[in-house]
Amino acid sequence: MRYDVFIAGYGGQGVLLAGNLLSYAAIHEGKNVSFFPAYGVEKRGGSAMCTVVFADGDTGSPVVGNPSVSLLLNQLSFDKYAAKVKQGGICIVNSSLVDVAGVDLPGIEIVLVPMNQIAIEMGDVRMVNMVACGAYIEKTGALKSTSLEAALKKALPERNHKLIPANVKAMEAGAQAARD
Amino acid sequence: MSTAAAEKIFIKGNEAVAMAAIEADCRCYFGYPITPQSEIPEYFARELPKMGGEFLQAESEIGAINMLLGASAAGVRAMTSSSGPGISLKQEGISYMAGSELPGVIVDVMRSGPGLGGIDASQADYFQATRGGGHGGYRIVVLAPASVQEMYDLTMLAFDLSDIYRMPAMVLADSVVGQMKESIIANPRPQTLLPEKKWVVRGRGEGEAQNVVKSLHLGDGEMEAFHWQMQARYQELADKESRWEEVQTDDAELIVTAFGSTSRIAKTAVALAREAGMKVGLMRPITLFPFPQKAYAALSERCKLFLDIELSTGQMVDDVRLSVARDADVAFYGRPPGAGSLPTPEELFEQIKKNYRAVA
User: Fold this and answer.
1) Residues of A numbered 149-178 whose beta carbons fall under 8 angstroms of chain B's beta carbons: which are they?
2) Are residues B232 and B291 in the same domain?
């Protein structure tokens, strides 16, 4: 089985960390992984995006034209990339920042998760990426939540390991929101 | 390293280059920062001093390549890296190294050009790399990694081939394989049988005779003899070291050919074609010099249509056309360097369909 997921938002939303986290979780499950980032020169603002492909065998192209799942964290990326999701695919949208009214995407399942709101309720808006990752594994079943917990130790620098329990909670809240 | 060899690590292509070089006992790195390869000097700056090696950020790319020439002449495994604009500056030094029969590894993580160009992915340094790049008529070993694992493995191979054939070797990467992260196995250095470097200059008067490393050949017939000797060496290199990967070429009616990151996108496009019942295969050269001419010739005895795909307006396609049988057709699909977006597998599949119809 070959999985691909596209993640986009603006710089500072933790798009690349989310991609790294899913990558480490896939490695934890013994998969081969390709993580392909693209971002502007800005530290904050600007656009950030990445594609993660994981498979038991060959990962193939790191570039994915029509992703099976997209996590779109702001309006700009929704407007630009939502329609590129493959037929039968899933588009998980940060409804705190994205207005999907009037957008018709036949054949694509749109999942609305108020990621900013959930992250704030969990204690810090910066955990928006964790909420997104939780929603992703809930909707796809592509990775186990225990793998993501294990991945946090690899993806976060040692000094931030004290934040792991809070991040796990944010992921659980994201999963819960995607379930409802 | 060997104890952890079985465990997969998750690193950037650029980091894999530096990690492999250190494992291959590279102990000197000279460079100057430029996107999209700066993780290479960053890694060396952090790790090389711990190994007793020398990391030096030179005053310029020209300084760095001449430091590499010096280190190589002294018998040390050494390397430099840059991207297009810096690689152009290094050409004088590479020509002098070739003329002096010096090994040494140069990594080009291609970006778009000409000039300062941009930081988007490109494969437009193919001509510069495979034709020698500098003046005087010479070739260097050119290896084209298509994954982070190959960034690692081919960097180690570059050091070995460079030492065995006494010529510079280049790892011709691009911003996609440089910047992406993949899970790889950090293999230990292969136990290649290497010739003793009897020609090194250490300035200690240890040898029986004086060793001289130079590219100036003024003696009667000396320059010509040098060239014939190098031609024989290039032939030996082609006979023994040509490397390539074939995917589903056995029954293919159309063979897609691409190198580096583009071959990864092409491979998925070929899989899409196979799902649609089309007999399509992939031929990926791993050594660009020596170009695997005989392998293309053999394939074209049976398959008469090739589709060359590059992130340029067409460079490797010349070598493909020179290699295949006379009655084989070579179609081309390219995207100019710095197009801002990469071709997708779906886009390449469309090109396959367009050309496949011509055969069917």
Assistant:
1) 154
2) no
